[in-house]
Amino acid sequence: MMATDAEENQVEHGSCYDRQRELKLLDESKAGVKGLVDAGLSKIPRIFIHDNLNTSSSTATNNDVSIPVIDLGSLHEQGSSRHEIIEKVKDACEKWGFFQVVNHDIPQCVLDEMLDGVRRFHEQDSKVKREFYSRDDSKRVLYNTNFDLYTTPAVNWRDTFSCVMAPRPLDPHQLPSICRDIISKYTEYVKKLGLVLFELLSEALGLNPNYLKDKDCAEGLFMLNHYYPPCPEPELTLGTSGHWDSGFLTLLLQDQVGGLQIFYENQWVDITPVSNALIINLGDMMQLITNNKFVSSKHRVLAQKIGPRVSVACLFRQHLEPETSKVYGPIRELVTEENPAMYKDITVKEFVKHYYAKGLHGVSALEHFKL
């Protein structure tokens, strides 16, 4: 159990504050942020307070600023339709690193059931969830709150259930029974859409459609099932602090609650949920191999009084135990005398280990691998 409101008031008046103890209490409860909400907390514990946070005035006031929405419905038609889609993808990847896709061939009933499955997992009895609670990042299935709990400057108002779905198939019996079937079904749809997207990205780079697939960029799949409980003091914390994704590509399914923002042209811009859409964003590994031609953009999630907010982020990358030690660096076809290589050649495992060690503290992991 976390500190009481009375203990928090002592903190405000300069009394004792044992940060490590607070972190350990949260961790050892194995009930996550949702456990605090269920306990009826009216003030958030100090470990969640983000210093100098101002979410009210940091959002873009220009309603015309929004990430592109790309219709994939005409992708397989003859003529100029595919070329037009590729041009839109190229523009979005160069300017934003984010776009939304509609008519993506994943049925709405599957999307709805996936969100429901994540909600069911997080809202089941804490005794059942506790079986999956772990801080061992090498596990293929685990649940916890904040992967960087002990290193982050401020804890985020979020719990996460994660699973490594590829390249090695995951035994379905390792998944929680309450959402096992839909995770397996949704994964197959995501893999198919991922291959389509990697083809479009390859062509947008002026390469063979199979280029990125042949580089095994679509081989790994790491799924993060996030749960953001309603927060009593959302102005003091964040659901997820500003960060860049670690993989090649992320396919994000979110509900209609909202709260996701991208940092664009020195301001935070709301990503308004679009019905039936999926959000696609590039990760740091994509920026590395494209030698900065495509961008990985900083983004965050606001904490909110309403909720819960539920989202499913599928990162196309291998995890900490890849099947191969394949090395990735700037693609040779994109490197010239005028545009020399900007990054070292590295393995995905090297990148992910550094990313996990540094946590979400506002500095891009790419900085560490610059030449």
From TrEMBL:
The keyword Cell cycle does not apply. It comes from Arachis duranensis (Wild peanut). It comes from the Eukaryota. Its cofactor is Fe cation. Residues 217-320 form the Fe2OG dioxygenase domain. Keywords: Iron, Metal-binding, Oxidoreductase. The gene is LOC107491189. This is Deacetoxyvindoline 4-hydroxylase isoform X3. Pfam families: 2OG-FeII_Oxy (PF03171), DIOX_N (PF14226). Belongs to the iron/ascorbate-dependent oxidoreductase family. One of its GO terms (molecular function) is dioxygenase activity. SUPFAM superfamilies: Clavaminate synthase-like.
